[in-house]
Design brief:
Elements lengths: L1 H14 L2 H25 L7 H6 L2 H19 L5 E3 L3 E3 L5 E3 L7 H13 L4 H31 L17 H32 L1
């Protein structure tokens, strides 16, 4: 009976990698809920921890890197923007843009990190693929933030209205769609390269 179960498991695994799926789900859960735990440590109304905020607040580090990069982009196209208190991108006398922790992309970072680590490859390749994907997601967020600031200053109304009021373009959705396209593209390229290497080994 045990031999039969093992045989069935091997046959199923030929068509669907359950070991990858289980590792992916476990890693995603660890990354996602660890991020949520650390987010709570930064919120006064939750489990605020001054030591963590002062020394290990990587959420603020990511936020600041996005805002300062977006600031360089907006200044490059002629807007007189500046970053205030890490979370605000401001045009003096004009609009201001606030980035909350929900906008940083922690869930998407968690997804990509879990996907890369769950796959079977060398640690060198995991680092290359993992860091490359995270930088791509981060850069898309920088572009989204800069575009929103440009839209606000130029009164692009479709970015200001809700879907129920006829919005044709939404910066949160644009970022999510861009990340989905990037991740799907990276997964496609990854499996193409991985499959080719496997085929070469078999040949």
């Amino acid at each position: 009976m045990i031999a039969l179960i093992k045989y069935a498991g091997r046959e199923v695994n030929r068509y669907f990698d359950f070991s990858f799926l289980l590792k992916f789900i476990a890693l995603f859960a660890v990354f996602y809920y660890a991020n949520m735990f650390f987010v709570d440590l930064t919120l006064p109304e939750k489990s605020y921890n001054a030591f963590f905020v002062d020394h290990f607040n990587y959420i603020n580090w990511i936020t600041g890197s996005i805002m300062y990069t977006a600031n360089m982009m907006t200044r490059a196209v002629g807007l007189d923007t500046q970053v205030v208190n890490i979370r605000f991108l401001v045009v003096p006398g004009g609009h201001s843009l606030f980035m909350n922790w929900q906008c940083v992309g922690l869930g998407i970072f968690s997804f990509w990190g879990a996907f890369v680590l769950a796959n079977k490859m060398t640690w060198k390749k995991k680092i290359i693929w993992g860091v490359g994907g995270l930088i791509g997601i981060w850069f898309l967020n920088c572009c989204r933030t800069a575009l929103l600031m440009i839209a606000l200053e130029n009164n692009w109304k479709e970015w200001k209205q809700g879907w129920t009021r006829g919005r044709t373009l939404d910066h949160h959705d644009l970022f999510n769609y861009g990340c989905y396209i990037l991740i799907i593209g990276l997964i496609y390229v990854f499996y193409r390269k991985f499959k080719n290497k496997t085929d070469e080994t078999k040949g």
